[in-house]
Structures are given as structure tokens and as C-alpha cells.
């Protein structure tokens, strides 16, 4: 038997203002006993009956088909704190490996026929909040929330009637509103282990300071080294201890990759770009790779070059075979 690694889940969700009804046995209910290391949220509709608040709850519970069933009135039923069978084949998506949705995501089955039934505002509000509360628990942002139809676009359409870009924007609003849960930022250091360390390691993967194969829940020398590198990259005290400032930096989206332009190959001119002019031609060209780029006199003079830097060659010089471009 497996016991949830999230015994405070109920309290955490309540702290977000959600109405929570735990289903008896949720802490030990599991689809199977294999690994559950959630770091994202997968959204569904139940495609259940058109009447009643949560008519699919019984079936989903009996078959362990998702961790949560969200009733039409916004009540969050906790079915399981362990792995469930809700994702199926799909992905890879948003850092979750192909076909590994059940291991890495919480499933929310929101009660809706999926046949054009309008979503009640109270249910949507709870949907956003539940997703935000789970993001908060894992120190991830709204980008970790996605739909079954995004995970498996060729075979799934749920949740029908919900545009996920808007959904994520609503989750972001609730995250920034600071309705933070009771799970305080734990101070982590070498020697620590457990779910909080998994959260830290997943955040370091998100920021590309660890790779996913290094997520093991043990804060050892590899994690410490990665954390120190992250801290110094973000201009924090690189002490290898994950405190509030480091958590705040980890929760931010990684900066866009800095694109370092490849050096432009040039014909060797002793360090200078070569300017060339063919006899009988008024244009001065810069030799860039396999091209000749027309450079106006103003442009090359502005760069401190003089006519002494312009190499005058015969019209038949091999450089004349290069493609000419007019870019300056
Ligand atoms: Zn689904």
C-alpha cells in the first residue's frame, strides 16, 4: 500500500479558500504503487451526467481516475493523494516526458458533460484556484498547468469550452494575488531529502541547472553545486542553502536563452574586415563570409575606416565572384 507524500493537501487547499471534501481513503488510494512525483497540473472534464453536482465522483473514485473531482458548485473532492490513471499516452509537453503524465501531473476532473454545457462561474473560480494552489505547492508557475487536449491533441478535447491560454492567465492572477498556502518555503541544505528537495530539484531542472535524471529527492553534492551555480547566476549569495530569496528566484520563469551570434567568417585581413573596391566600380564592399556587402562611404567612415583601408582590386579578382548584397 502506498501512502500519500502530501498529507497536508487538504489543509493546503483550504488555505486557498477552496471548499474541500476529502473522499474517505484518499491518502492511500492509488492506481498502483509506482512513482508519483507531480510538478504540473492536467485539466479535464468528466464527460459525465448532465445533472447533479459531481455525478462522476463514484466512478472516478472506484477506478482511481484522477486525484480531484471538481463539482459544478466548485467543491473539490480529493479522491487520491497518489498516482492515478488520467493522462494516458501523450506529450512530451512543458517538461513532462512522453507518456509520463500520470507520474508527473495531478489530474483535475471537472464535472461537465463536455457537450457544450456552460461552465458555472463558481466552478471556474474553484478550477483556477485549485490549479494555483497546486502550482504554489510545487513552486511552479501557471505554465505548469495544461489541458488533456494539449497533452493528447489527437485523441482528447477536454476540457471542452475552456481556452487554456486564458485559463493560465487566470491562474497567474490568483498566484500573484498571494493567496499563498500554509506550506512555507522550507530552508533546504545539503543532507535534506524528501518532497521539498524534489520541488527544488525540479525548479533547478526548469532553470537548466540540473537535468531531470538528477531529480532524486536527496540534497547531495550535485544538487548543492547546481544550486550554488544558480545562485551566482542570479546574483544571490552562493551559499548552496535554499532560503526565501532563492525560492523566489526559482519560482520565476527562466530568462530567455541568450543568443550569442556566431562570429561572422571573414577573409583574413589581419583582424580588420576587408573593404574592397573593384577598379571601375564606385561601390565599396565589405567581405563577409561568401558575400560582398555594399557599404556606403558614410558607414565605413563612421566606423573609423579611411580610404587607406579599401583594397582596390582588378575587376577580375576572385572576390568578384562572390554574391553582392546591398545591406548598408
Ligand atoms: Zn481527460
Mean pLDDT: 88
Kindly estimate the percentage of residues that lie in beta strands according to DSSP.
5-15%
End-to-end distance, in Å? 71 Å
Tell me the series of helices and strands, N- to C-terminal. Answer: HEEHEEHEHEHHHHHEEEHEE
Main pleated-sheet profile: 6 strands, mixed
Please estimate the helix content. Answer: 25-40%
Shape: elongated
- Contiguous runs where pLDDT drops below 50 for at least 5 residues: 264-271
- Beta strand count: 11
How many structural domains? 3
Structural class: alpha/beta
Sequence of strands across the biggest β-sheet: 1-4-3-5-2-6
Question: Which features would summarize this protein structure in a list?
Answer:
single chain; 328 residues; alpha/beta; Lysozyme-like; Muramoyl-pentapeptide Carboxypeptidase, domain 1; six-stranded mixed sheet; five-stranded mixed sheet; 28% helix; elongated; binds zinc ion
What's this, in brief?
28% of the residues lie in helices and 14% in strands.
Overview of this protein structure:
This protein is an alpha/beta fold. The chain has three domains: 9-176, Peptidoglycan recognition protein-like (Lysozyme-like), CATH 3.40.80.10; 195-251, Muramoyl-pentapeptide Carboxypeptidase, domain 1 (Orthogonal Bundle), CATH 1.10.101; 275-325, no CATH class. It is 28% helix and 14% strand. It has ten helices and eleven strands. It has helices at 9-15, 57-63, 101-104, 121-138, 148-151, 164-176, 195-206, 221-233, 244-251, 297-302, and strands at residues 20-22, 40-45, 68-70, 76-78, 105-110, 145-147, 275-278, 284-288, 291-295, 310-313, 323-325. The strands form two sheets. A six-stranded mixed sheet has the order 1-4-3-5-2-6. β7 (275-278) and β8 form a beta hairpin. α4 packs across α6 (164-176). It is elongated, with a radius of gyration of 29 Å. The model is unreliable at 264-271 (pLDDT under 50). The structure holds zinc ion. Residues 44, 148, 156, 158 line the site of zinc ion.
Amino acid at each position: 500500500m502506498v501512502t500519500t507524500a502530501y498529507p497536508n493537501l487538504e489543509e493546503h487547499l483550504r488555505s486557498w479558500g477552496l471548499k474541500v471534501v476529502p473522499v474517505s481513503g484518499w491518502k492511500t488510494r492509488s492506481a498502483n504503487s509506482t512513482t508519483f512525483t507531480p510538478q504540473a497540473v492536467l485539466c479535464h472534464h468528466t464527460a459525465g451526467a448532465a445533472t447533479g453536482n459531481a455525478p462522476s465522483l463514484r466512478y472516478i473514485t472506484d477506478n482511481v481516475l484522477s486525484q480531484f473531482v471538481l463539482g459544478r458548485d466548485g467543491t473539490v473532492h480529493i479522491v487520491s493523494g497518489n498516482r492515478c490513471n488520467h493522462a494516458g499516452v501523450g506529450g512530451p509537453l512543458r517538461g513532462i516526458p512522453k507518456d509520463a503524465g500520470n507520474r508527473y501531473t495531478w489530474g483535475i476532473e471537472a464535472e461537465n458533460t463536455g457537450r457544450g454545457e456552460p461552465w458555472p462561474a463558481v466552478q471556474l473560480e474553484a478550477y483556477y484556484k485549485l490549479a494555483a494552489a497546486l502550482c504554489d505547492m510545487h513552486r511552479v508557475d501557471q505554465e505548469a498547468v495544461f489541458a488533456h487536449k494539449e497533452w493528447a491533441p489527437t485523441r482528447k478535447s477536454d476540457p471542452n469550452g475552456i481556452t487554456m491560454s486564458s485559463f493560465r492567465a487566470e491562474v497567474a492572477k490568483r498566484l500573484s494575488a498571494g493567496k499563498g498556502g500554509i506550506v512555507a518555503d522550507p530552508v533546504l541544505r545539503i543532507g535534506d531529502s524528501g518532497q521539498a528537495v524534489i520541488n527544488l530539484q525540479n525548479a533547478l531542472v526548469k532553470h537548466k541547472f540540473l537535468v531531470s535524471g538528477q531529480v532524486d529527492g536527496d540534497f547531495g553534492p550535485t544538487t548543492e553545486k547546481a544550486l550554488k551555480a544558480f545562485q551566482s547566476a542570479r546574483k544571490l549569495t552562493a551559499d548552496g542553502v535554499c532560503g526565501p530569496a532563492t525560492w523566489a528566484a526559482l519560482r520565476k520563469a527562466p530568462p530567455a536563452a541568450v543568443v550569442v551570434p556566431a562570429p561572422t567568417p571573414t577573409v583574413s585581413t589581419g583582424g580588420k574586415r576587408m573593404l574592397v573596391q573593384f577598379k571601375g566600380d564606385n561601390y565599396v564592399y565589405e567581405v563577409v563570409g561568401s558575400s560582398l556587402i555594399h557599404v556606403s562611404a558614410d558607414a565605413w567612415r563612421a566606423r573609423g575606416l579611411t580610404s587607406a583601408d579599401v583594397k582596390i582590386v582588378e575587376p577580375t579578382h576572385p572576390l568578384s565572384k562572390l554574391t553582392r548584397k546591398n545591406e548598408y
